[in-house]
Design goal:
Layout: E1 2-6, H1 10-21, E2 25-30, E3 42-45, H2 47-56, H3 59-68, E4 70-71, E5 79-81, E6 87-90, E7 100-103, H4 104-115, E8 119-121, E9 125-130, E10 136-140, E11 145-147, E12 150-153, H5 160-166, E13 172-184, H6 190-196, E14 201-204, E15 210-216, E16 238-246, H7 249-255, H8 259-272, H9 277-284, E17 292-298, E18 314-316, H10 319-322, H11 331-348, H12 351-382, H13 386-408
Parallel strand pairs: 1-2, 1-12, 2-8, 5-14, 12-18
Antiparallel strand pairs: 3-7, 4-7, 5-6, 9-10, 10-11, 13-16, 13-17, 14-15, 15-16
Bound molecules: flavin-adenine dinucleotide.
Organism: Nocardia jiangsuensis
Pfam family, one: FAD_binding_3
Protein name: FAD-dependent oxidoreductase
């Protein structure tokens, strides 16, 4: 059997590696010319995603991932703050949480290594369909084409392959625009370092303004303490933050800015919405080059609406099918689990039923991940309603007082 994979992001590379290990002939075609010259911050891999990965890549690659990953169990519980910097509550203890955060570039580079010379870079797919003999075929912008027994679209949220199968887009804008950046903890004032601690957190204010802070330290909090195996992009305690606003003319104007101009405009926008300066220091201290905008796209959270096509010899996985906003940190993990499931089925079930079973399981998995990710999105959008804004403002002092009282006990 020969499998053609379109897209060498996280899901496509995980699939390529798994098929190669299983002895299946596979070729992964990716439009980027360098897997490291790509955007992205950190990816969270929970226990099931790590378990899936350990079946897809060789043990030495798993070890290098663990040596480059930041362990959640070494972090303090997540915090919820208000826009004045008051603590409203804490999340659960993380000491038994097996999840890790890893730089997207590091994860992608390690997966690319696992795929080896079955990865073909600089190949832009421009069309997909069936040849006269019924074999699936992919066409590229350089005039070449390739056929296989199975074509898998792992080409992300704007997937060409899934659009061919579904007859249209498989997701839509979720109503929120995100702006991310990277801030070294060493660039924060002593006061702010003490206030934030070694924890991730979320601030949600009225009018749909929210700020996520993700703490990672792949060196100090390494999952596996093997410095000789380490290859993270992040080399010290760092906050990867995501500012979120409802999609509007204001965010449209922000999206046109870059670097320090965007960073300053984000701070100004939060200040207009009543946020205290100390809460915004993490944005002000960010590496200007790291600040970038991205739009949240989401597929349906109803399983029956995902992969709305009959099973055949062309399929898709990951964001191509269940594009997931980053609010639950589960999109990449779901793509990896899709890949592991497809590899397993292709090894034990003949082709048409293998794809049918794979797509049925992926619908359930995708819907579960989307349900988790859309909770925070809906909450943030609710604060942009008159009732939601009033409730957010009224609840903050009550929750802050309750948190102080619990702290005193
Ligand atoms: C640049 C980038 C940065 C990201 N940063 C983060 C992040 O910081 N945190 C986070 O949680 N998630 C991030 N994500 C999303 C996360 O990586 C995905 O949600 C998740 O990995 C799902 O994996 P996937 O393989 O389905 O899609 P992706 O990882 O998006 O991979 C899709 C791949 O297909 C390729 N492709 C698309 N169209 C074609 C074509 N026509 N021909 C050939 N190749 C094509 C793309 O170049 C891409 O490499 C990012 C995604 C991208 C593309």
């Amino acid at each position: 059997m020969r499998v053609v994979v379109v897209g060498g992001g996280i899901g496509g590379l995980a699939l390529g590696s798994g098929l190669r290990r299983a002895g299946v002939e596979v070729s992964v075609f990716e439009r980027d010319t360098d897997v490291r010259a790509t955007g992205g911050y950190h990816i969270t891999l929970d226990g099931p995603a790590q378990e899936a990965l350990s079946g897809l890549v060789a043990p030495e690659i798993v070890e290098r991932m663990l040596a480059s990953g930041s362990a959640l169990r070494l972090r303090d519980p997540d915090a919820f703050w208000d826009r004045r910097g008051r603590v409203l509550g804490y999340g659960p203890e993380l000491r038994d949480d097996p999840s890790l955060d890893i730089d997207r570039i590091t994860l992608r580079a390690l997966l690319a290594e696992a795929v080896g010379d079955d990865l073909h870079l600089g190949k832009v797919a421009t069309g997909v369909g069936y040849a006269g003999d019924g074999a699936p075929v992919v066409w590229f912008d350089d005039g070449t084409s390739v056929t296989g027994d199975l074509v898998v679209g792992a080409d992300g949220a704007h997937s060409l392959v899934a659009r061919f199968l579904a007859g249209g887009p498989t997701n839509a804008p979720a109503g929120i625009v995100g702006f991310s950046g990277r801030t070294s903890v060493n660039d924060l004032s002593a006061g702010e370092r003490a206030r934030l601690g070694t924890r991730s957190g979320l601030v949600v204010g009225p009018h749909g303004a929210a700020l996520y802070l993700g703490f990672l330290d792949p060196v100090g909090n390494a999952v596996l303490d093997r410095p000789e195996l380490r290859s993270p992009v992040t080399t010290g305690p760092t906050f990867i933050w995501g500012a979120m606003f409802p999609d509007s003319a204001v965010t449209g104007a922000l999206r046109k800015l870059r670097g320090s101009a965007l960073r300053a405009a984000l701070v100004a926008r939060f200040r207009e919405l009543g946020w205290r300066p100390e809460v915004l220091e993490v944005i002000e201290a960010a590496d200007a080059e790291s600040v970038a905008a991205f739009r949240f796209n989401a597929a349906s959270s109803r399983a029956g609406e995902l992969a709305p096509w009959p099973a055949g010899r062309i399929t898709a996985l990951g964001d191509a099918v269940h594009a997931t906003p980053p609010t639950a940190g589960m999109g990449a993990g779901a793509a990896i689990r899709d890949a592991a499931d497809l590899v397993e089925r292709l090894g034990s079930v003949p082709l048409p039923p293998a794809v049918e079973g794979f797509e049925a399981a992926m619908r359930e998995r995708g819907a579960a991940v989307l349900t988790a990710a859309m909770g925070p999105v809906r909450w943030i959008l609710f604060t942009d309603t008159v009732a939601g804004a009033a409730l957010t403002v009224a609840a903050a002092p009550v929750l802050a007082a309750a948190a102080r009282w619990r702290g005193r006990r």
